């Protein structure tokens, strides 16, 4: 059964959040490409990034793994197509399996699936739909592999020629896949730096509040001491507040260490 065709049109960037994404948002200018973000697929529209929600580390890990799988299966596909052309038993089935895995991985990375965002930044937008024409090149590789495997399976006279074309396309296709995988890895690093920066900002705010709370607790103890017996309960509350701020200091110190 023929696979569904891939769209070679650019995607529309949007700030739609998902359960798998982090809860902290950052804002971008339209068309900016400094930070990773979620997108929704939409053919024929220009990139327009707003109210971005960064992707989670788990999502980035899945994207990098899937892109690596796409690279690996492209090589496995060609290898077993060659073996199938030489009549090696079971090679054609393995080649078909590799093609299916390659096609599914590509579709998930391009269009999104199972919590993955598809094309989520301008760097990927350019790699897939800009001058490198990554999406077009990968789609052509899939089409050529399908035709070559069908010809090998049926013993058609065109099998040798198609297989030669498939082998010739392997190196440039792999180069494209490597470049795209590098983008996923770089976006993951950018995301990690963004998260650390945002964490440090939040921690600084917490520190400011804790310092203010300490001052309140100190002043409360002075007032309680002046009030004597009548201020005893107030002194207890001030003591509890002081203990809480000390615990906050400890938590902030731990969080700052993790954010370095």
- What is the helix/strand order? EEHHHHHH
User: Per the principal axes of the C-alpha atoms, what is the gross shape?
Assistant: rod-shaped
What would the CATH topology of the largest domain be? Four Helix Bundle (Hemerythrin (Met), subunit A)
Q: Give the CATH architecture of the largest domain.
A: Up-down Bundle
Q: Which strand order spans the largest sheet, edge to edge or round the barrel?
A: 1-2
Biggest sheet character: 2 strands, antiparallel
Molecular structure report:
By secondary structure, this protein is an all-alpha fold. It has 2 domains: 183 residues, Four Helix Bundle (Hemerythrin (Met), subunit A) (Up-down Bundle); 63 residues. A two-stranded antiparallel sheet has the order 1-2. Helix 3 packs antiparallel against helix 5, helix 4 packs across helix 5 and helix 5 runs antiparallel to helix 6. It is rod-shaped and about 105 Å long. The chain starts with 11 loop residues before the first strand and ends with a helix.
